[in-house]
Amino acid sequence: MSKAPMRVAVTGAAGQIGYSLLFRIASGEMLGKDQPVILQLLDLPQAQKACQGVMMELEDCAFPLLAGMLATDDPNVAFKDADVCLLVGARPRGPGMERADLLTANGAIFTVQGKAIAENAKEDVRVLVVGNPCNTNALIAGSAARKVGRTNPANYHGMLRLDHNRALSQLANKTGRPVASFKQLVVWGNHSPTMYADYRNCTSNGDNVKALINDAVWNNDTFLPTVGKRGAAIIDARGLSSAASAANAAIDHVRDWVLGSDEWVTMGVPSDGSYDIPAGIVFGFPCECKGGSFRIIQGIAIDDYSRDKLNKTLKELTDERDAVKDML
Ligand SMILES: NC(=O)c1ccc[n+]([C@@H]2O[C@H](COP(=O)([O-])OP(=O)(O)OC[C@H]3O[C@@H](n4cnc5c(N)ncnc54)[C@H](O)[C@@H]3O)[C@@H](O)[C@H]2O)c1
Ligand SMILES: O=C(O)C[C@H](O)C(=O)O
């Protein structure tokens, strides 16, 4: 017997990430090749016509798993009974901007949507915020949801998976090893240039990657800035912010969360106090996913260099939190 459909709400559905994301969800890449889905598209009133065009194309793909879809400008309709919400809709940054510059422009979106999710979605809804600055937007959405009380605030995540995937590819380029050989990578902190991509515990076919590379200068002067500033490099090259790779990372995050992963994955999740990160701050942590839930991996040694990096990215996040305190 076929499974009951899962409802997936996608905001910013008419935007560039939406255009990469929706077709892959409908084809079963996110929730499984045996899992029917109903897509619930949210965008602004002026983008409804474009949403209709996207839905025409989805229809023309004749995806066997696509059990229904709708487009709306009303968050209460879009999030109704949703199992998964992908909060993409927000303004992207342009050349010369940092993601934190979007805080006030985009933050207000997430108070409204966090509340609408908590009032309308399934109680065990999983929420992934992609719209930037995604960690603090997830904090805002989770805080709005906490006030309503129905849903689990730990399920309001920010997307660090793109940074994790970027770091994997840089390690593969450096070592000449396949991307899939790398295990136990983590990107700590904020989705911003302060993030700390940490391969101290990473292995490749059983070899310790730090020992294999053995190049502290490359780590500090090439690897970390390349991963941290990759979004800006893409904006510079494309004139637009990353879209297909961002959609791919969102698929990876939710797929691992729902279906499980044998490997460590980086997820931006509300801190439970682990690694001395204050509770509630949405921070990139190493996680393992099993049985539909996630858990922060414990017991990783934090040396002085790493503590300094964690403190820098945490300071940025606490500053962002303070800047939006009226929204929390
Ligand atoms: N976390 C990450 O790794 C990551 C990666 C890439 C992009 N992003 C961010 O994702 C966001 C979207 O990027 P994009 O390239 O798709 O932008 P885009 O401008 O192409 O699309 C954004 C869409 O959101 C819609 N929108 C705006 N406000 C909305 C609201 N209140 N409710 C619903 N929809 C709304 C717009 O109408 C538009 O269709 C940006 O904030 C961008 O910075 C994050
Ligand atoms: O950098 C941006 O503004 C877009 C996105 O967050 C990215 O990392 O590509």
UniProtKB/TrEMBL annotation:
The active site is at H191. SUPFAM superfamilies: LDH C-terminal domain-like, NAD(P)-binding Rossmann-fold domains. It catalyses: (S)-malate + NAD(+) = oxaloacetate + NADH + H(+). CDD domains: MDH_chloroplast-like. Signal peptide: none annotated. PANTHER family: MALATE DEHYDROGENASE. Belongs to the LDH/MDH superfamily. MDH type 2 family. NCBIfam families: MalateDH-SF1, PRK05442.1. This is Malate dehydrogenase. The gene is mdh.
